[in-house]
Amino acid sequence: MSTQTAPPTAAEPSETGWWRRNRWALAALPVVLALALVAAGDRVRTLWWEQDLRVPTSAEAGTTLDFHQRVQTGTGGTLPIDVEVHLDHVGDATTLPDDLELPAGTRAVQVDLTLGADPDVVLTGCSLAVRDAAGTRYDYVSNAWGALQPVVPCVPEDTPGPWPSLGDLDDVLTDPDDPPRPATWSVSPVVVVPEGVDVADVVLWWQKPQYALLEVPSQPS
Amino acid sequence: MSTPAAPTPRVRRPTAQTLGAGAAVLAALAVGHVVVTAFPVDERVQASFLRPTVVGEPVELRYARLTAGEPSGSTVLDADDGSLLSTPGVWLTVPVTIEAVGQPRTFGFAELLGGDGRTYTVSTGGRSGFLPGTAQPGVPRYATLRVEVPPEALAGAHLRIGLEQKDQRRDDVADIDLGLTQADADAWAADDSPVVAGAWSDEPPEQP
Amino acid sequence: MGGAAEHEPGAPTLGRVSGPAAPPDLRARARASGSLVARRALDQPLRRIGIGGAIVLLAVTAAFGGLREQAEDGPEKLAVDVPVAVAPFELTVHRVVWTTDLPGQYLSDDGNRWVGVVATVRNTSDAGVLGVTLQDALTLADVEGLVQEPRALVPGVRATSIALLEDGSSLSPVQPGLSYEAAFLFEQDGSVAPPTSATVLLQQHTWRSGSLDPTETWWDPTTTLRAALDVREARSDADEEAES
């Protein structure tokens, strides 16, 4: 600081301008400002961006959707999600799950999905919801209104496939004789929505903000 | 920076400039300090958006519409799970109706600001608790909040309910004036017939 | 800034032992810049800079309370049935008992027993406090075979649960302005003989914000009172009532 602000006296030979003397600092200034903003904005990602469904992967109604994501595991690694999803049908549930007592003013919507994935892919962390045209989300709840539906809505209940690794506990928790998950399978979770709500799309997610968006064909015949 | 008066003004000039720059930096720091401390900027920026309401009046929050019902109280609480809870003070129960907006919402924060100026914690478990679960949009959720307080805290007490258990900064918080008086406190402190505070339900509670 | 260095009579001798710490070319530049402060600072011998630095360091710590007299001389002796203030609580320890059966409380092994410290708990702060803080406020030591392991931040062993005598429920949150009669329950291995004596430790907390999290809460449980108390077998409720 002191060497820079002490200007050259008449004795010094070269008179260099302030801009020239500070050119490197000036060049670094925009970079430093950008870095400061990025550093301060880190919480925007963790506290806002990753708290909701924001990055859809969608397919046209009636087609099969390929969904890929690398999700963070609790142990610091990542797991690949590679799954094909096809929305077969959305409509009033023909048979209600055992003991389901619908609250007043609601109806039960059954979502028929056909999925396909490699039997090694960990899919057990998935959530499912239906949304209306306004974007209001109605979640699948496994244990609610007296009924017990499968905990994970998007894998077969009896053969859910692998779970995320828990390190040394894996040997205790997993039975190598468990049958593998089939290459393709169908599930029919039931979601409770208020009466008068028309389901516009079905969403499926493993880790926010990415999600699979399956549009319901308008006016199913 | 105590430089003695130099004989030649030409040599003095740089020092004067240095002093000026130093003074300007100090002045800028001082002004910044005044701006930050003289005005409660931090508090105002981080403050919750308090949405005032009274018993029976729905209040629109960012994430839900909330209605507090008529409070009741006693010295004995029936938790509706086979247990009766006593208290060295008074049990206060408040029925709350939650209508989630936009997506399912899990309420995690509640506290009672007593008329005595003290804050009474309402946890999601424990003796003083509020556990409404996850409310689905369009399906009203009925839950009962319970909190034990000294009788002197009841008159003028306000109930605050919000979404995040740990952090209500910059978010909506309902501020419900329960409209309680000293007469309510006296009556409840002398009452030992249990008030009921059961688990949440999506069916409206039966009106007595 | 010790500007009188060059006028000191002993300076030449000292200078030979430890000359100016700064390299000559830096000192020459400082002289050329015309800054008196820079020139004087760079002319200082290394030892003087070290001493000066130590003094500055001491002054800085002193400004934050480094030289303040130490307030605590170790824990005082805890007396039975005397209310003591251990922020944020006022605790009155009544007795220490053991029993094998308590309604509503479940031992991890049927052969184990409870060691209970019966106390009156009062929250003297102006806000409710969760039971985890109360668990840090009263701990037990010098009892063999306690099922809970001692934890790093709190001396002694924390209670497995804190039950209200009146209804057996777990005491949390502890609301301000109310006096609770509670038993701090510590599970003891049944294969060890019941204790005849136990050391009760009372910890005081400090209200401050965390070093990583600006939220203020109760931190730093510090033992301010302790005593070895006799432990006897609990009598039935009827006996207790007859006594009181």
TrEMBL record, chain A:
The name on file for this protein is: Ribosomally synthesized peptide with SipW-like signal peptide
From TrEMBL, chain B:
Q: Where is this region: Disordered?
A: 189-208
Please indicate which superkingdom the organism of origin belongs to: Bacteria
| Protein name as annotated | SAF domain-containing protein
Species assigned in the record = Cellulomonas humilata
Q: What high-level taxonomic lineage is stated for the organism? A: Bacteria, Bacillati, Actinomycetota, Actinomycetes, Micrococcales
